[in-house]
Amino acid sequence: MTGPTGTSKDDAEPTGDEHSSSQESGAALEQQQAGGGGDALAGVRPAARITETRARSGMFGVRGTGDTSGYGGLTLPGYAPAPAERPFGGWFDEFADELGAAMDERSIPRDAIEQVTIDRDEMTLYVLPDKLNAVARTLRDDPGLRFEFCATVSGVDYSAPDGSPVDRPVHVAYHLLSMTYRRRIRLEVALDIENLHVDSVVDVYPTADWHERETWDMFGVVFDGHPALTRILMPDDWEGHPQRKSYPLGGIPVEYKGAEIPPPDERRAYS
Hints:
The protein is of the alpha/beta class. Helices cover about 20% and strands about 20% of the residues.
């Protein structure tokens, strides 16, 4: 491996501070066995993948409604990218170094990043729910990062169709763009089904306002600190969250016939 000055890594003189790769691997293994996920930015692989691989069958995973599509026997293998290790390649290593230093400056623990994945030349950082706002603010404000724009917020429910338990099945992903450096990354949080709470980032990225409302409306994720977390697609009195795997399919009557739209001065404010 050749450094920036053309000096081979193998030819470099020892300084007394080096550690062998076997020592580093042993330290990482000890940290995992002790129960810590390690510093994902430094390439220590967590003990298990955050997103499980699970085969899918049938059309959209629907069960119990009959095979009207002809795809009832379709089976797709499960796929989830493995946790990435350094070196990531490309600009990802430079970015990881800059983010790690910026987090240190702001006293954000490195283990706020649970896991890093690189898949199809796209980087995803899995962030602890209560550290999302702080990490997002760092990504926006640090001059070496400058992720100024949050393009969208996506929710997904990885619960098993057969009801078998899945650890932290509900995920929320934030798609960020650096217009300064022309880079894109994804922040993702994994939530327990019994504790669907995550910090809102509306105060960091105002564009996330209605995206977070839609994710709450469809998946039931509560964005703590959101200025007006209300329904945005479904009626105010709707029960449940339609894109959750546990939400029943079919049998929902049309509820809009004969509905009256209130005058503008009586409508609910959305911000």
